[in-house]
Amino acid sequence: MDNVHESCRKAEDILHVLRDRVAQLPGSRDRNGRPVIVFPARESSAAINPDHLRNILLYLHAVTAFVQEISFNNWI
User: Fold this and answer.
1) How far is the C-alpha of 72 from the C-alpha of 38, rounded, in Å?
2) Cα angle vertex 32, ends 41, 18, to 5°?
3) Domain ranges within the chain, ordered by starting residue
4) Residue 16 burial by CB count (10 A; 0-12/13-18/19+): exposed, middle or buried?
5) Any idea what DSSP says for residue 54?
6) How far apart are CA 75 and CA 72, in angstroms?
7) Residue 60 contacts residue 37 (beta carbons within 8 Å)
8) What is the spatial distance between Cα 57 and Cα 7, in angstroms, rounded to a whole number?
9) What's the rounded Cα separation, in Å, for the pair 1 and 49?
10) According to the model, what pLDDT value does residue 16 have?
């Protein structure tokens, strides 16, 4: 999993998927402190590419893990 995780760390690598707004990370947390990922309703009924979905989830996971690692939440 680390190899896949490492390959999706940069936003520029998945910019086309981020622009589609398939999933969003609004910055909120659930009651247990875990990040909330939002999947907005889409007007088009086009199927989402499973690889794109996997890459966006890996990227968002990496971002939240990095924030937790540097204890960014303690700065607020």
Assistant:
1) 21
2) 35
3) 2-75
4) exposed
5) H
6) 5
7) yes
8) 12
9) 20
10) 78
Tens place of pLDDT per residue across the chain (76 aa): 444 445 556 777 778 777 888 888 888 888 988 888 888 887 776 778 888 888 888 888 887 776 656 655 555 5
Q: Which two tokens stand for residue 13?
A: 């690598």
Q: Could you tell me the two tokens for 45?
A: 């009924």
Q: Nearest CA to 60 among 25, 30, 29, 26?
A: 25
Contact 29, 19 (CB under 8 A): no
Looking at residue 5, its amino acid is H
24 near 37, Cβ under 8 Å?
yes
**Cβ-based neighbour number of residue 7 at 10 Å:** 13
Q: Coil, strand or helix: which one is 52?
A: helix
